[in-house]
Amino acid sequence: MLNKPTEEPKVARPTATILAVLGSIFGLEIALFLLLFGSLGSVFGVAEISPAAALGRTTIYLVVVGIIGGVIVNQNPKIAGTLMLLSGIGGFMAVSLAYIIAGPLLIVAGILALLKK
């Protein structure tokens, strides 16, 4: 006679990871554009550090947080979801409309990770 397991086996659900990585890739593109745009000011002698370059650095930090959240989603979904939500909302606060593709991807990934059992 076969005994039925009382607990379902953990199945890796890659949806949150895929959305987090895609959102981070789009966020990285925005960050690199801001860094490039911000560094042009120093080439022409306009400013030492432009606000665009500072926002680009901030966006890179947020992208790294989003990637970390996407990587650890199977080990600790609550922390991963929090990190992805932080990355998505923080990106909107930093660069607003430029984060229109990356932000929703990271926010949805964060919500999916938090709802994961």
Walk me through what this model shows.
The mean pLDDT is 86. With 117 residues, the protein is mainly alpha-helical. The chain contains four helices and no strands. The protein has one domain (15-115). Helix 1 (15-43) runs antiparallel to helix 2.
Q: SSE layout and pairings?
A:
Elements: H1 15-43, H2 51-71, H3 77-95, H4 102-115
Looking at this protein, list some descriptive labels.
mainly alpha; single chain; 71% helix; 117 residues; 4 helices
- Taking all Cα atoms into account, the compactness measure Rg is 18 Å
Total count of domains: 1
Order of helices and strands: HHHH
Q: What is the count of β-strands?
A: 0
Structural class category: mainly alpha
Termini separation: 30 Å
Q: Which percent bin holds the helix content? A: over 70%
Query: What is the overall number of helices?
Result: 4
Mean pLDDT: 86
The residue ranges in which pLDDT falls below 50 over 5 or more consecutive positions are none
- Beta-strand residue fraction: under 5%
The shape is elongated
User: Biggest sheet, open or closed, and with what strands and sense?
Assistant: none
Short description, anyone?
With 117 residues, this protein is mostly helical. The chain is 71% helix and 0% strand.
